[in-house]
């Protein structure tokens, strides 16, 4: 995929934008498409974590933070379970760890 803006590309790939869409079912003009198909914040988190690992047959090693699993995790800019629903789409990764090592650190994060 060509790396255009992760939220405004024709096929946006930002996970927090994707979660916001699944939770709100809002379109670009603000209307709601299929309101009966909204999901909860917890369901959206599972869809992007443990369910994704399950779909690739990797749930034994990925998808949740547990002893014996890969130490991949992200520190995010807002609490996805407590922020306003429209703030979800603007959440940013501040720190990313893969295999227990920091691979990305936002310039606002101190070491």
Structure characteristics:
3 strands, 22% helix, 3 helices, globular, 111 residues, alpha+beta
What does it look like?
This protein is an alpha+beta fold. It has one domain. It contains three helices and three strands, in the order αααβββ. The chain has helices at 15-24, 41-48, 50-55, and strands at residues 73-76, 93-98, 101-105. It has a three-stranded antiparallel beta sheet, with no helix packed on it. A hairpin with a 2-residue loop joins strand 2 and strand 3 (101-105). Helix 1 (15-24) runs antiparallel to helix 2 (41-48). It is globular, with a radius of gyration of 15 Å. The N and C termini lie far apart (31 Å).
The total count of helices amounts to: 3
Q: Give the number of DSSP strands.
A: 3
Helix content class: 10-25%
Q: Enumerate the strands of the largest sheet in spatial order, edge to edge or round the barrel.
A: 1-2-3
Distance between the termini: 31 Å
Rg over CA atoms, rounded to whole Å, is 15 Å
Quick overview of this protein structure:
With 111 residues, the protein is of the alpha+beta class. Helices cover 22% and strands 14% of the residues.
List strands and helices in order, with pairings.
Layout (H helix, E strand, L loop, with lengths): L14 H10 L16 H8 L1 H6 L17 E4 L16 E6 L2 E5 L6
Antiparallel strand pairs: 1-2, 2-3
